[in-house]
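=== RUN LOG ===
request id: a7f3
mode: sequence -> structure
chains: 1
length: 172
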Amino acid sequence: MDAEALKQYIRDVPDFPKDGILFRDITPLLLEPKAMHGAAEALASPYRDLGIERVLGIESRGFLFGAPVAQQLGAGLVLVRKDGKLPWNTHRVRYELEYGVDTVEMHVDAVEEGQRVLIVDDLIATGGTAAATLELAHKAGAEVVACAFLIELAALGGRQQLDVPVHAVLEY
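=== RESULT ===
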């Protein structure tokens, strides 16, 4: 399924979560098995022959896409979660948001030194969470091959926060 076909499954919700924001809702895509498969395929395909060993899925919608991408690439799935959600020892990165600070974590044994990883999320906007996840991967000694997103809100400049190749299936 090509990008234009996938776009029909993204619902625009004006003024959510607050006035002036146009929210790109992926739930219609999740309801359609062929669209979900097409999205996972479009995220995974550029990385098939690059020896990806781990896919880092960013909480929470990144889990939805990270799991099928990891399966397609024959890689393990690493959960990157918000502060305090993981039950084991973690690497942590604290980062600035436009309205405060947040922290992302992953288990210390999730990625081995030198492993080739792909970071996956549903959407990149300003790039703060993705940049923090990239820092987290580097902290663990990973070789980050790229970041892949289903949707990029290009006007917000998030990809400029990342010093690795960025692949976005859909651009708004």
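=== NOTES ===
The mean pLDDT is 97.
The beta strands are 11-14, 22-25, 54-58, 76-82, 90-97, 100-107, 116-124, 143-152, 166-171.
=== END ===
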